[in-house]
Known about the structure:
The chain is of the alpha/beta class and about 325 residues long. Helices cover about 45% and strands about 20% of the residues. The strands form 4 sheets. A 6-stranded parallel sheet has the order 3-2-1-4-5-6, sandwiched between helices. Adenosine-5-diphosphoribose (APR) binds near residues 78, 96, 120 and 227.
Amino acid sequence: MDRKKITIVGAGNIGATLALLLARRETADITLIDINEGVAKGKALDIMEASPILGFNAHVVGTGNYEDTAGSDVVVITAGFPRKPGMSRDDLLFKNYEVVKSVSEQIKKYSPEAFVIVVTNPLDAMTYTALKVTGFPKERVIGMAGVLDSARFAYFISEKTGISVENIKAFVIGGHGDDMVPLPEYTTVSGIPVRKFLSEEELSEVIERTRFGGGEIVQLLKTGSAFYAPAASILEMVLAILWNKRKILSASVYLDGEIGKYYGATGLCVGVPIVLGKEGVEDIIKLELTDEEWKAWRRSVDSVRNLVEKLPL
Ligand code: APR
């Protein structure tokens, strides 16, 4: 049986880290493509030279030519510019719009059946861009942010409670910006509500740190943004699709009609709980929110709408 084919567009920090993680799982053969062809080729070769030691048989190839990406089952878009200190994700809007638009045109041409996972920031606006430019069904174009934000929330809770990360199930919805919406009501420590472990003050601290989790890393790195946890988050989404896990996780998806009305975000891509499996977005889970959470959700949706309205789509 042939292995599946995954293309990663952008062989930068996130793209290359993801290629190594995927190769080690032998899930698929991987094509790394970058505007800087040498970087894609060099990193692919470097990963393959690790294969005898780490013991994986998957193939990773680097290229600058979209013909080599043809017939991919999944395409991950990490191409673009990362944040520098002092920049918000939204400052990247127009530069990364051009990148995601041109990449999406190539995906449409060479991999018309692919699932597309968008990672480039500002995430929700770039997911919307990929959806519109490819014209793919909304079930197949998914933005990666909620898994990462929820992982950060879970890690900070683990740190505060001293309980294993394996026991923490945390949930964050909304846009992937500073006004994202962490949901303590839907966050548990081994099934026990998180409020049994943390005071309101401790919880507020953890929520605040989660909202600015990406910025904290940018401040420390100075020359780029986070990549290990983002790559791990993409891996989780790719495996959910390829192995038909039907996993509930938070991701940025297009909201329309009935669901859109419920969330008050019709016509946008925003982070909500979805069921992810072999058909892509197989369901969207409706949550009950408190008044305060609704307020936060609306603020977050408004920020996403403001950005999307600036795009020439
Ligand atoms: N086509 C293909 N590759 C491109 C293009 C393009 N049009 N434009 C830029 N790239 C490549 C760059 O050459 C670089 O190798 O995208 C890569 C981006 O890598 P990094 O700068 O290391 O950025 P990374 O940390 O991987 O983040 C990528 O994800 O989290 C978001 O905000 C982040 O938008 C950024 C993206």
